[in-house]
Amino acid sequence: MNALLKRLTLLLAPALAGGAAHAAATEAAMPSIDFVPGEVRVTAHRDHDDLLSAGLGLAGLAGAPVPFADPADPSAAELRRRAIQMSWKGIADLGPLGGYGQVYGSVPSVPGREYQAFAWIRGAHQPHRVLLQAPDPFDKDKRCLVVTASSGSRGIYGAIALAGAWGLPKGCAVAYTDKGAGTGFFDYADNSGVALDGRRAKRGEAPLEFTPAPLPSAAGIAVKHMHSGDNPEADWGHHVLQAARFGLAMLDRAYPDLAPFTPQNTRIIATGLSNGGGAVLQAAGLDDGHLLDGVVALEPNVQLAGQGRMLYDYATEAAIWLPCALSGARFDAVPFARAPMTQGWAQRCASLHAQGLIKADAPAAQAAEAYEHLRTAGWTDAAMQVAATSTAFDLWRAISAGYAAAYLRRGPANMPCGFHYAATRPDGTPGVADAATRAAWWSDSGGIPPGNGIGLFGGVDRSTDPTLVGELCLRALWTGDDATSRALHAGIEATATRLPRADLPLWVVHGADDGLLPTAFTSEPYIAWLRAEGRHPLYWKVPHAQHFDAFLPLPGFGERHLPLLPYGYAALDRLWTHLAGGAPWPADIRTPAGHPRGTQVLTKAALDLE
After folding, report:
1. What tens digit of pLDDT does each residue of 59-79 get?
2. Distance in angstroms (rounded) separating the CA atoms of residues 294 and 468
3. What SS3 class is residue 28?
4. Domains of the chain by residue range
5. What DSSP state is assigned to residue 214?
6. pLDDT tens digits for 165-218?
7. Catalytic entry in 153, 274, 351, 445
């Protein structure tokens, strides 16, 4: 009944937009934004500076990072432009063989305004950043708001290549949240963080994206996702729903002649990928007020109580066991499995043998034993092959150390297992960041150190396998039963996703070859759970797609895979056809077959979407 009433209201919306309806748009009718106690920053973006690419267009987005006139003191406009560019580069395959802009996707110039603020959920120690992009060509006849959350721990533009690229050209407004993560790093060396405009500011000079407790100047770098004390992942769904409400309130300001914007007269679509995909699924499970009309989640980090596997469980397992397993001959031809940074993988086998975790004596047999250990734990060959990239780039240790701090609500000075973050000198040792490095963190970082002049330190010894001691410590937090382990489990259990309402159209799109968030641990148990509970989700397990479209330009990697973004766009298109065009929501849908891109430019035939 609620869905039917909303559909009738939407059909009448164009007629109600003027006259008496506008006269009734009093402040009392406006959506409350009492969760934004401070400034709402409003900026216009037109001519050579638009919403979708900051004036760079597809060629500019794909090009070298746009320089700052003064690297030590970039302007807010320069930081925004580069943050948008780096967010695109971190998510989409913009390489010459990737087909973006020719086979799928586009980057038209979309003029409009941005409304940005720090929002607070009840009980939080730190805010989350919210942003509405209101396009000048907003479709007043088909009111549409896309709400999204950044992937990974990225900054506020971290989902622009998905939500912005799909929604803005269609005349939808797009509301973003950094979901309590982001790149507003606080540097104790100069007591500075990031203000609302993205520029560095000292504690007390302006409201900051993240203001941790005072510590000595040698305390290093504080990261909001890890050190806020909020365990933000437990509230990702609340962040998304609050961003949607912020979006409605800002739409009233952007288009006063069409106000009020409400869930009853505006279609609200939630979409996100990776952690952002998990966030919108969390939001779907919390949406008792029928705020959302539909959800499309790509490769979601979805965590379930008692089903699938929790990210921390398989990430700590992967950090320990994958280096040994991947040293086996069966992975010789896998991209990045024999890269220079993998030379210590055989030593991992010997270390596990010395620890009594592997019984075999010969290196080949040790690798085979580690491989079988992972197979028994649910890892597929496809997931392990692609996980060679994450293992080579040391992502498992970075994720495990950071997320342990978040789940335990630890600060920068007492991260578990002796880890901490600090600025790095050119030789990789801890030091103090210069002004140019510090200024670019907000625009350039992916949100989880190490990288961009910040190192992950601690959790090592002087052995021939120095990182193992920290990885075993992090694993023991999962397998142990002391007070710290129980606290960690409580923090992780708080992130479990709830059941969405029965009438919510929901579509999950996941790459079959995902080696970071394997489908067997995430989407597949989630979809099975929904169906067992009488829900009717759609699910695409896309052959040859993996987790990082941005990795596809890497030599030897893109030839084996397909991008996932075009399948996300296609799912959003079909959801929109259902919501705005009245097409029936199917009970099931054919998963595209597709085939690897190969060494040539991606083709439409490879995607199998027609």
Report:
1. 999 999 999 999 999 999 999
2. 44
3. helix
4. 311-419+458-492
5. P
6. 999 999 999 999 999 999 999 999 999 999 999 999 999 999 999 999 999 999
7. 274
